[in-house]
Amino acid sequence: MERIMWYGSGKRLFKDLDQDYIRIFKELREGKIPELNGTGEKPDLRRLLIEYGKERIREEFTPDQALIKVASIRNALDEIINKYYEKCLPFSIPYRINTSGDPCQFFRNGSSIDDISTIFRKGSDLCDFRSQIDDSIRLRIREIMPNTTDLVGPKLAMDLLERSRGLKRLAFMPSSSIQMLGAEKALFQALGHGRKNPKYGVIFKFPGLSAINPKARGRIARIIANKVAIAARSDLLGTRIDTKSIREKIEDEIKKAKK
Q1: 5 pairs with which residues across the strands?
Q2: For labelling, which of 163, 190, 211, 227 has a CA lying 20 to 30 Å from the CA of 53?
Q3: Residue 8 forms beta bridges with which residues?
Q4: Contacts 24+ apart (CB under 8 A), 47-52
Q5: What pLDDT is stored for residue 44 in this prediction?
């Protein structure tokens, strides 16, 4: 039996290997053997694999993955702003700057003091940049996940997208897994120590869920997760559903649970 190498078999190369290597590598990954009628010297495997790797990254870097990266930058900005705020706090006493607990307001109050204005303006600029990113995220999440965003709001939709690591993964998740997104650590700790399992993760941020009786939260969280699963699958398929009536039904369940 003739042995098949990455470049072909014996002296015969895969047809158009030097130009059509991306298609050929994809076929090889799927277990298909491309046409064997090429001739000449076998191409540099390292160069072809580097280019193939770049192409695969481009294919995987879909709009939802790009948005997750933007959200991670926004989260990093939170850490930077809080750290910068801690370092600037000592100025509050000698310069009598109001410390309301809001770093951005603190920076804006201090930016009018000549001696330290530059330092505080930089902090204010960071806050403005974070606000710009927030606006961009709200816009993009609505474009990528319109049904889910209408159902649970842009912030929770973004949390679900981040936690699931992509729209496709979220859409393929069972509702029970969606319900637990964000509570994985607590779940494994509960399983390891024989405690009660948590009943919800980031879905707890759904408006009104925190205000109802704790005994009813698990049931309502399960209803929300079921509807999120439907909305995410519709987003993946590019179709629209009646999220308004679905959300109204969830809100009715929350109202009943408050009684």
Answers
A1: 8
A2: 163
A3: 5, 13
A4: 48/21, 49/25, 51/21, 51/22, 52/21, 52/22, 52/25
A5: 87
Q: At what angle do helices 103-110 and 117-144 cross, to 10 degrees?
A: 140
User: The whole model's pTM is what?
Assistant: 0.81
Residues of the chain with pLDDT under 50: none
Dist. CA 174–CA 69, nearest whole Å: 25
CB-based burial of residue 52 (10 Å sphere; 0-12 exposed, 13-18 middle, 19+ buried)?
Answer: middle
| b/e code 26-43 from CB counts within 10 Å (16+ = b) | eeeeeeeebeeebeeebb
pLDDT value at position 2?
Answer: 61
The full set of domain ranges for the chain reads: 8-60, 62-144, 146-259
146-259 placed in CATH 1.10.246.90: yes
Residue 238 has a CB neighbour count (10 Å cut-off) of 7
Asked if residue 174 lies in contact with residue 232, where contact means CB atoms within 8 angstroms, the answer is no
Nearest to 95 by CA among 73, 112, 74: 112
**Quick one: which of 121, 140, 164, 143 has its CA closest to 74?**
140
Instruction: Report the relative pairing of strands 12-13 and 8-9 from DSSP bridges.
Output: antiparallel
The Cβ of residue 173 has, within 10 Å, a number of other Cβ atoms equal to 20
